[in-house]
């Protein structure tokens, strides 16, 4: 098992600071919803569950270290940056809620997904009509609400910074949200086409994860801090590489990971038909029999445990598993080299180096 990484202070307190911002904001907005109608308490509680239950807080963390790449600890504006970074977590919660509806995923972070909770509530109330339809529709509304709140929290906090830096940071946030939707669409398109294309898989990784999870949050923080073009170039290169490593590790965990650590049933990614680099490489290198197994099994919602085990064998026998592992190491190594210029604040460079190792070798 990979060694857990303890990041330097003040990163140890960062999740608590982000959680405090999110809790305060959601409590305030729950009051607003309650003033409209008591029935909206269901939506307010679902928002709290979606945002505050579990999660790695990666995007706020990278936004913070983007800031700290330029500014020393406790510099003026840091509190506003952390509040804005919390807004990224609301955006991510929106993406997860919608993603679970689109993928028909029942589990999120080891708990029932939002649309499943709403479906169950409908059934418990004994209401007429389809509980499943109610669950999906309400989850879409929940995601929309979280999206709206993310912009509200982000812009209100960033607006407290010097105007030029605030405008540039908000522009970066706009690009981030566009790329998130683009990445999600490209992912759905890849699944709809049903092809096994390594280049297409890497394009999805770039826009759905590398940019959204690492590069843009880093740049948001650094731009808010007044970072130079040279610093932004370093963080951009680092972000793309470690973002890819992170997603490729996620792809491996989605197939081979321990469900007690990942919070997802074993083989779920195979049943959902995700066209990852892992399965694309296996199809590319496989013999006719192995390709037939991949084509029949990937995307089969009724895939049994034995079927998952057979696909595991194919992914390993074709060398796809090993090739993805090697690519993860290569990208993490390249990301680490990006940090060796001496242009970043030392504490940030060290934290980003450790985050690179954690992303590459995590088990959950």
What does this structure look like?
The chain is mainly α and 364 residues long. It has a single domain, classed as Farnesyl Diphosphate Synthase. It is 75% helix and 1% strand. It contains 16 helices and two strands. It has a two-stranded antiparallel sheet. The radius of gyration is 21 Å and the shape is flat. Residues 1-10 have low confidence and may be disordered.
Which word captures the global form? flat
Oligomeric state of this protein: single chain
**What's the arrangement of strands in the largest beta sheet?**
1-2
Helix content: over 70%
Fourth-level CATH superfamily: Farnesyl Diphosphate Synthase
- Mean pLDDT, to the nearest integer, reads 93
Largest sheet, in brief, is: 2 strands, antiparallel
What's the total helix number? 16
Class based on secondary structure composition and strand pairing: mainly alpha
């Amino acid at each position: 098992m990979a060694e857990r990484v303890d990041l330097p202070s003040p990163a140890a307190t960062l999740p608590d600071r982000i959680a405090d911002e999110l809790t305060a904001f959601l409590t305030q907005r729950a009051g607003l919803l309650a003033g409209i109608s008591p029935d909206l308490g269901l939506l307010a509680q679902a928002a709290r569950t979606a945002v505050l239950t579990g999660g790695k807080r990666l995007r706020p963390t990278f936004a913070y270290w983007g800031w700290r790449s330029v500014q020393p600890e406790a510099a003026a504006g840091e509190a506003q940056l952390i509040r804005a970074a919390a807004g990224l977590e609301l955006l991510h919660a929106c993406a997860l809620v919608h993603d679970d509806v689109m993928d028909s995923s029942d589990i999120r972070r080891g708990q029932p997904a939002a649309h499943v909770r709403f479906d169950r509530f409908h059934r418990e109330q004994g209401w007429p009509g389809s509980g499943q339809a109610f669950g999906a529709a309400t989850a879409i509304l929940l995601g929309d609400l979280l999206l709206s709140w993310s912009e509200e929290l982000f812009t209100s906090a960033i607006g407290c910074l010097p105007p030029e830096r605030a405008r540039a940071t908000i522009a970066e946030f706009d690009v981030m949200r566009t790329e998130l939707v683009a990445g999600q669409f490209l992912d759905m398109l890849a699944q709809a086409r049903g092809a096994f294309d390594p280049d297409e898989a890497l394009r999805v990784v770039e826009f759905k994860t590398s940019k959204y999870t690492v590069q843009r949050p880093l740049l948001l923080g650094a731009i808010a801090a007044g970072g130079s073009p040279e610093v932004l170039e370093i963080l951009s290169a680092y972000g793309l590489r470690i973002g890819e490593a992170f997603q490729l590790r996620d792809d491996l965990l989605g197939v081979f990971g321990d469900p007690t650590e990942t919070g997802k049933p074993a083989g779920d990614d195979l049943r959902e038909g995700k066209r990852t680099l892992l399965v694309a490489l296996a199809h590319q290198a496989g013999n006719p029999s192995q390709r037939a197994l991949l084509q029949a099994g990937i995307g089969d919602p009724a895939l049994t445990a034995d079927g998952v085990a057979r696909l595991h064998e194919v992914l390993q026998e074709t060398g796809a598993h090993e090739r993805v592992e090697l690519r993860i190491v290569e990208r993490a190594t390249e990301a680490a080299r990006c940090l060796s210029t001496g242009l970043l604040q030392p504490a940030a460079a060290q934290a980003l180096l450790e985050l690179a190792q954690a992303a590459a070798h995590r088990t959950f």
